């Protein structure tokens, strides 16, 4: 730097203007150098719409055949971060607003990344994780058990995920810039309760006494700060199920974690839009704040509104770009959107229905050990804090996580420093030898078993009871289901003994027709970013299982003597990652055979097997060694079978167009904040166009005399797009758009629009739009 300055000094006669340019360049270089020395990584974040088909498709999670998507509460997204050492290794973490990761989706995403970037992103350093919402479209997993209720494979669900994940990673890749990451932790007490406390109580008392609660209450948050743009996002991990929405809900929703993400991203954009307003005039402002000052006279507003009658449906183009303006309007051009992800961790036995489980008929708490009412499970339901309104419960549990995340975000000060590294291995869990400590000293070798599910699996949980005569904590089983099961596959003596005391309902690991019913090869993976270590697990660890795994890995890392991992090492579990293999309980919880134990696929030593395999990865990480890649999991894409029929055609009654209003807002009406505006449009099947990165519904506000500005879309919590047919086979359908006017809405003249796409008999797709009459919010 000094040399450069000296040489400028020598060329004294250069024009003053040029010299100033030089000096500014030097200052800029110096400035960026000091900033760079502080930021040690390249960071990039991305986000893309993965909502998928909003009609006809069974929702993933509750395995309830009757829970079929029919509209959108708010959209689902894939949110990604990439962290790279400037000249070294990098890791990718993707958080999906989906029930879980899928092996097939992971395989296809990796193929696309390979085609784009060569060997930059592989199974080794990419983790794809699900938040466990039970309100997203299903049919995207490859193993038979997980696609029975969706009538097999659903290509549209699958494609929306693969495309969206790829695009969010591409965005993150293109956003890579120097930046820093901060980590922070804190307790959130009221967003989860243990739904199988009787199983938890079977863990040794000495172990339980080390913990204050029977679920993990800690949230771990990463804050991403870009050198140029400042804070650009955050990712956090906290354990609670995505079951605030019930097994009868039919609107697509990210449940409490998706809601929290929506709230936090909007919070950040609105705050930064506000603070930007004082700066340059070019910076787009919050659209509504411009408008509120224009009209003040209620009479004048009504008069204005009455001149805008509902307009008939008409062909539409460029729908998506119109709708995206709602969120992008808040942002400075070029500035990457703020990405906030709420990721899942060891939620296996954690319910967001924090009021407890009660019997629908009597209102008394369900039986403690079996979660039954009068001996049956069908009537036992967990209650969320918004009971009986599930949308309210979702909002409240979402808001609690959002508030805690904002807290941690605002106070994060511990910077991540150190190497980026990773280890990944595929392991065959169907016949793994596991060395465990023996009672009274020494060790013994035990084995895992081919996958199988116990009877209590079919009982479901208090978040979504099963439909048949099953109860949790069942170690005998009923004869009818034993018969049905025998038609499928009778487990042999060895398999029965291996799983004991689990009574086997479905011997899924040994069922191979028409293709595998359950996975046997599972990925295990460690990602390291400085002092943060992420353990990618392909399932739902219960509270105590998660604690044991984290402790085992942390002990190994910090006691290695390498000095690389100190007491500030943070270990988080990323649940439901890369593929899905149901639950993992502790050996002691397994003995109780509640839902989680019955769904622990590989027998009583499943957890010990994970701990052993993660210790291998951790050891290799410390020593700088490689690990065995293990056997490749199968790719069954070509074998997938689907019974979901395609859209045949859409139609409207004679004299009515797609998009026409069937039930309008009352003429010359005025609504108060907090009230709900409902408009019904003639519509067509949402499967014709998923409106990816677009919207089916829009609320617009009038600016001046004739300019309509989008203010809310179907990604907003306050706006619901509810699609329905009069009967299952009818080509006619309607869209009911409900807008609950938020307290923050500007006063003014509004209207509601619907966008859709209809399928003609010959198969061509035509887009349409319709508009309600204008109304006043006063
Ligand atoms: C609505 O208001 C307009 C203008 O104020 C008026 O002409 C019209 O009759 C009103 N319609 C109804 C149904 O009240
Ligand atoms: C639950 O089961 C345990 C073990 O069998 C028993 O000791 C306990 O009393 C039961 N609790 C209730 C509330 O039924
Ligand atoms: C959606 O509309 C259908 C048919 O009008 C109705 O039965 C259902 O309750 C609505 N769902 C929601 C969540 O509003």
TrEMBL record:
Entry-linked InterPro entries: Ceramidase_alk, NCDase_C_sf, NEUT/ALK_ceramidase_C, NEUT/ALK_ceramidase_N
Broad class of enzyme this protein falls into: hydrolase
Source domain of life: Eukaryota
Keyword entries, A-Z: Hydrolase, Lipid metabolism, Signal, Sphingolipid metabolism
UniProt signal peptide: 1-37
Domain Neutral/alkaline non-lysosomal ceramidase C-terminal: residue ranges: 614-777
Pfam families hit by this protein: Ceramidase_alk, Ceramidse_alk_C
Domain Neutral/alkaline non-lysosomal ceramidase N-terminal: residue ranges: 41-612
Catalytic activity field: an N-acylsphing-4-enine + H2O = sphing-4-enine + a fatty acid
Name recorded for this polypeptide: Neutral ceramidase
Protein species of origin: Gossypium hirsutum (Upland cotton)
Lineage, uppermost ranks: Eukaryota, Viridiplantae, Streptophyta, Embryophyta, Tracheophyta
Gene giving rise to this polypeptide: LOC121224632
């Amino acid at each position: 730097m000094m040399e450069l300055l000296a040489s400028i000094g020598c060329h004294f006669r250069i024009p003053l203007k040029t010299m100033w340019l030089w000096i500014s360049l030097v200052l800029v270089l110096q400035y960026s150098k000091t900033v760079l020395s502080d930021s040690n990584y390249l960071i990039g974040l991305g986000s893309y719409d993965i909502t998928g088909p909003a009609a006809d498709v069974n929702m993933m999670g509750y395995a309830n055949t009757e829970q079929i998507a029919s509209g959108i509460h708010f959209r689902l997204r894939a949110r990604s971060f990439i962290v790279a050492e400037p000249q070294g290794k990098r890791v990718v973490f993707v958080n999906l607003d989906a029930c879980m990761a899928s092996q097939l989706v992971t395989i296809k995403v990796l193929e696309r990344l390979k085609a784009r970037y060569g060997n930059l992103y592989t199974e080794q350093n990419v983790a794809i994780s699900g938040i466990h919402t039970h309100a997203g479209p299903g049919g995207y997993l490859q193993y038979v058990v997980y696609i029975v209720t969706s009538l097999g494979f659903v290509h549209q669900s699958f494609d929306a995920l693969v495309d969206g994940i790829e695009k969010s990673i591409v965005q993150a890749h293109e956003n890579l810039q120097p930046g820093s990451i901060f980590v922070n932790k804190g307790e959130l007490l009221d967003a989860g309760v243990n739904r199988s406390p009787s199983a938890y109580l079977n863990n040794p008392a000495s172990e339980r006494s080390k913990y204050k609660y029977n679920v993990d209450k800690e949230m771990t948050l990463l804050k991403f700060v870009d050198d140029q743009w400042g804070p650009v996002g955050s990712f956090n991990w906290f354990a609670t199920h995505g079951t605030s929405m019930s097994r009868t809900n039919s609107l697509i929703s990210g449940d409490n974690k998706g809601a929290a993400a929506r709230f936090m991203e909007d919070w950040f954009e609105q705050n930064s839009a506000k603070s930007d307003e004082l700066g340059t005039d070019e910076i787009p402002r919050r659209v509504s704040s411009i408008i509120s000052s224009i009209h003040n006279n209620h009479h004048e507003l009504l008069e204005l509104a009455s001149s805008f009658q509902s307009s008939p449906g008409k062909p539409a183009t460029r729908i998506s770009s119109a709708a995206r303006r709602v969120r992008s309007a808040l942002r400075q051009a070029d500035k990457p959107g703020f990405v906030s992800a709420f990721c899942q961790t060891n939620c296996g036995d954690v319910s967001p229905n924090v009021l407890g489980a009660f019997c629908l008929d009597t209102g008394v708490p369900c039986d403690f050990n079996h979660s039954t009412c009068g001996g049956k499970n069908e009537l036992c339901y967990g209650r969320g804090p918004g009971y009986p309104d599930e949308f309210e419960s979702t909002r409240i549990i979402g808001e609690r996580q959002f508030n805690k995340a904002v807290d941690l975000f605002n106070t994060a000060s511990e910077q991540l420093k150190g190497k980026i590294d990773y280890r990944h291995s595929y392991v065959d869990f169907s016949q793994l030898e596991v060395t465990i400590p023996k009672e009274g000293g020494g060790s013994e070798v035990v084995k895992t078993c081919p996958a199988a599910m116990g009877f209590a699996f079919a009982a479901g949980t208090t978040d979504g009871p099963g439909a048949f005569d099953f109860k949790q904590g069942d170690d005998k089983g009923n004869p009818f289901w034993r018969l049905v099961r025998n038609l499928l596959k009778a487990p042999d003596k060895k398999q029965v003994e291996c799983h004991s005391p689990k009574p086997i309902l479905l011997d899924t690991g040994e069922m191979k027709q028409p293709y595998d019913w359950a996975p046997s090869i599972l990925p295990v993976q460690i990602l390291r970013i400085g002092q943060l270590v992420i353990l990618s697990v392909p399932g739902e660890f219960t509270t105590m299982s998660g604690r044991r795994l984290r402790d085992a890995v942390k002990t190994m890392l910090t006691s290695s003597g390498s000095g690389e991992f100190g007491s500030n090492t943070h270990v988080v579990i990323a649940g439901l990652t890369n593929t899905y293999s149901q639950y993992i309980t502790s050996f002691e919880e397994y003995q109780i055979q509640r839902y989680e134990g019955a769904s622990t696929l590989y027998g009583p030593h499943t957890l010990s097997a994970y701990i052993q395999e993660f210790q291998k990865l951790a050891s290799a990480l410390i020593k700088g060694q490689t690990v065995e890649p293990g056997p490749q999991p199968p790719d069954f894409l070509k074998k997938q079978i689907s019974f979901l029929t395609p859209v045949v055609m859409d139609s409207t009654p004679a004299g009515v167009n797609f998009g026409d209003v069937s039930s309008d807002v009352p003429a010359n009406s005025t609504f108060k904040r907090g009230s709900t505006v409902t408009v019904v449009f003639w519509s067509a099947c949402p499967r014709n166009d998923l409106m990816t990165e677009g919207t089916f519904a829009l609320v617009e506000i009038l600016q001046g005399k004739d300019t309509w500005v989008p203010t809310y879309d179907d990604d907003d919590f306050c706006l619901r797009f509810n699609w329905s047919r009069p009967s299952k086979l009818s080509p006619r359908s309607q869209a009911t758009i409900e807008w609950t006017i938020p307290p923050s809405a500007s006063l003014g003249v509004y209207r509601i629009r619907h966008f859709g796409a209809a399928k003609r008999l010959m198969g061509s797709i035509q887009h349409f739009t319709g508009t309600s009459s204008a109304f006043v919010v006063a």
